[in-house]
Amino acid sequence: MHTILGVGRDDAPQREATTVTLYRPVGQAELELIAASDWRAFPPRLPHQPIFYPVLTHEYATRIARDWNTKDPASGYVGYVLRFEVLATALDRWPPQQGAAGDAFRELWVPAQELDAFNATIRGRIEVVAEYRTATAGPSAETPDGAEEP
After folding, report:
1. Cα–Cα distance between 3 and 46 in angstroms, integer?
2. Which one of 1, 84, 112, 125 has the largest count of C-beta atoms within 10 Å of its C-beta?
3. Residue 134 contacts residue 75 (beta carbons within 8 Å)
4. Could you tell me how far CA 9 lies from the centroid of its own chain?
């Protein structure tokens, strides 16, 4: 048995039904593509984006959405924090890695060509749980029912 996120991993049949909460910071264009999927999948990566990086904590996603996306013209000067559930078995295929921001910030590294397989592990809808804007950002995007305001 080994442990990931403090959970014993020798219960494979039970894990198939168990989910783990992940987060993803995104800008306006990516949010619109996710909305077009009925809030159920992440869009294909662009050619200069070979890896998809969902993160393990709300704090890490907030840091990226607030501190990076709001300063990025490609993000529309807006950052959203998304929350979603994946099957726990996804962590076997894409184990948590230490992110660029240090030990406290962990993320999954999903190669772009495996994004469809990752999307298949999502259970339920992807939710917007926070939004960060600068004065140069446009109006708020429509979010699914139940989304929390920042």
Report:
1. 34
2. 84
3. no
4. 23
3-state DSSP assignment of residue 147? coil
The one-letter code for the residue type at 127 is E
CB 33 within 8 A of CB 49: no
- Single pTM value for the model: 0.79
Tens of pLDDT, residues 46-98? 999 999 999 999 999 999 999 999 999 989 999 999 999 999 999 999 999 98
73-to-27, 28, 29, 40, 88 alpha-carbon distances in Å: 9, 10, 11, 26, 35
Give the C-alpha separation, 133 to 70, whole Å: 6
Q: What is the pLDDT averaged over residues 105-121?
A: 96
Q: How far is CA 35 from CA 18, 32, 98, 109, in A?
A: 25, 5, 29, 23
Domains along the sequence of the chain with CATH: 18-133 (3.20.170)
Average pLDDT over residues 113-140: 89
Cβ-contact 85, 23 below 8 angstroms = no
Please list the alpha-helical segments (H only) found in the chain. Answer: 12-15, 28-36, 58-67, 90-93, 115-119
